Amino acid sequence: MEKRDYYEVLGINKTASDDEIKKAYRRLAKKYHPDVSTEANAEAKFKEVQEAYDVLSDQTKRGQYDQFGHQAANGGFGGAGGFGGAGFEGFDFGDIFSAFFGGGQKSTSRATNRPRKGSDIQRKMSITFEESIFGKTEKVKVPVYDECHVCHGLGAESKKDIKVCSQCGGSGSVIMEQQTLFGRTQTRATCPTCKGSGKEFIKACSNCNGEGVERVNKEVEIRVPKGIETGQQIRLEGFGNKGANGGPNGDLYIVFEVKPSDKFIREGDDIIVNVPLTFAQAALGTEIKVDTVYGQVMLKIPPGTQSESKFRLKGKGAPNIRTKQLGDQHVIVTVVTPQKLNNQQRKVFEDLLRVEDEATPQKNWWDRFKSNFTRQ
C-alpha cells in the first residue's frame, strides 16, 4: 500500500511552521490514540500520524523528504542515510557482480562473515501524568536475544566442535546453476548448510542449538525525561538484540504513553485546569486554592469575574523536554449555578433579586412600555 503524503496525513500545507506541525500532531494524536479513540483503524492512523510528525518535526529529515519524498527513507539519496541513518550499511558492490556473473566469491565471503549490528527493539512504557512532568528512573525487564550463557556465542559445545563448512569451504556462499532462456547461468547464494557463517558444528550447543544466542529478560534502567509526551521516545544504545559475527548490539527504543490526568490537561508546555466559582465569589472577589502539579497555590479572583475567565500561573506548567524551561498553568473559572438552595440561601437570593429590581425601576418601566407597544 502506497504511503500517503506526510503533509496530507497531518492536514497541513508544505509551508507550515514548526508550531503548526506540532499543533496538528497533538490534535490528531489525541483523536486517534488507541486507548481513547473510537475511530476505525485508530492504531494504524495513530502510527501514521506519529511517523509523519517524526519526519516533519526534524529540519534535516523534512528537508530530505521535501526533496526526495518517501525515497529519502530508504537511504538512497543525500548520502546521509535517509531518515533511519542506515545509509549504505549492509550493501556490497560485490553482491551485484556475484548475482549477475557468478563471480565475486571473495567479496561475498566478506559480506556474509563480516560483523553485523543486531536488530533494534521497540517497547512501550506507560507512565502517569505526574511522572511525565517530573521524570523518574525505573528498572524494567526487556526480552532480548543475547549471547548464549552456555557457549558464550560460539554455537558449539567447545571450540574443538567447530570446523570449516564442508559445502562452501568457509566462504559462506555457494554457486547455484540454473537454465534460462539465455543459456545456463550461475548465481551466488548464501550457503544453506552454514547459513553464511562458513562454519559447521560437530556438536552444537545444547542450550542454543547452534544459534549462539538465547532469549533472556534483561534488566534495563529507564530514565524518563522530564516533560516527555505521549508518542515521544528515547534510544538506549546497545540494549537491543545481539549482533552477529562480533558486531555491536542493536538499540532499544522506549516509546512513552502518558495516562490522562483527572485534574489537568496538557497543551504543549502549558497545563490547563478548570476551577468552579460560586456567584458570591465571582461577584465579590476572593482568594481560592488552586491545584498545580507542584502543589496548591493561592489565586486572587477580582470582583466581577465572569464565567470562563482565564488566569495564568507563570512557571507552573510542564518542562520543555529540550530547553527544560517551564510552561505556564492556565486556570479557567466557571461560575456554577446552584441546583438546590436551602431556606437561608433562597432568602439571600430573593433579597438580591428585590434589590436589583429596585435599583433599575426606570428600565423595568420602559421595558414594559416597549413590550406593550410591540404587541399592539
3D architecture notes:
By secondary structure, the chain is of the alpha+beta class. Among the domains are: 120-150 and 208-259, HSP40/DNAj peptide-binding domain (Sandwich), CATH 2.60.260; 159-201, no CATH class; 265-335, Urease metallochaperone UreE, N-terminal domain (HSP40/DNAj peptide-binding domain), CATH 2.60.260; 343-375. Helix content is 28%, strand content 27%. The protein has ten helices and 15 strands. It has helices at 6-10, 18-32, 42-56, 59-68, 93-101, 105-113, 129-134, 279-284, 343-359, 361-375; strands spanning 121-127, 136-147, 162-164, 173-180, 183-190, 199-201, 213-224, 233-236, 252-258, 265-267, 270-277, 286-292, 295-301, 310-313, 329-335. Strands 10-11-15-14 form a four-stranded mixed sheet. A three-stranded mixed sheet has the order 1-9-8. A hairpin with a 2-residue loop joins strand 10 (265-267) and strand 11. The longest helix has 17 residues, at 343-359.
